[in-house]
Design goal:
The chain has one helix at 8-18, and strands at residues 22-31, 34-42, 48-54, 60-66. The chain is of the alpha+beta class and 73 residues long. It has a four-stranded antiparallel beta sheet with strand order 1-2-3-4, with helices on one face. It is globular.
């Protein structure tokens, strides 16, 4: 069955409301049957965050500050 998902632009706005900054990288993943967008955001304070937004419900699934300079958790 086909299910509608939110646009990446809508997901970006949601992620940036949660963590204001500049999106450096974005991706879409399917894990355990849940489709979500993943954004890596750099804040004005030079902190990096990973924000995951559910592609169907538009809810923020996870916000995590990244310690390393690359995009790995």
């Amino acid at each position: 069955m086909y299910r509608l998902i939110i646009s990446i632009q809508h997901a970006q706005r949601i992620a940036l409301k949660k963590v204001p900054g500049t999106i450096q990288c974005e991706d879409m993943e399917l894990k355990y049957g849940v489709m979500f967008y993943k954004f890596y955001i750099l804040t004005e304070e030079n902190k990096r965050f990973k924000v995951e937004v559910n592609a169907k419900t538009a809810k923020v699934l996870k916000v995590k500050e990244l310690k390393s300079p690359d995009h790995d958790d």
